[in-house]
Prior knowledge:
Elements: H1 2-20, E1 35-40, E2 46-53, E3 62-66, E4 76-80, E5 88-95, E6 99-105, E7 111-114
Parallel strand pairs: 1-7
Antiparallel strand pairs: 1-4, 2-3, 2-5, 5-6
Amino acid sequence: MRNGFMIAAVVAVSLWAPAAGANRAVSLAPAAAGAVNLENKRRVPLLDFRIVLPAGDRTPEIVVAKLEKPLGPGASASLTVSGVKGCRFQARWTFADFADAGDVDLCGGGRIILVD
């Protein structure tokens, strides 16, 4: 009996809560950073860096941010993220000595530090 009461109370609060705050628009979806601060902490130049929304079954790959020119050791740059919604993207980078890729969550912050 007690579990039935708890479920009913949760449903009642759920139904009442939207009406109580109806005059305010609240977005529960996280927003991606509008800019990313990229830092090269390696001892070799960063030749290329891109943040992409990978291709889907019916959608092409979208480059949402790109490094315009190589980034020297110890240098940083600001990249503008544009044209997308969401949090999870793929970062792809090319150094003078190797290339790699990895997943990045831009809703967690707009700072990416590349280290050895």
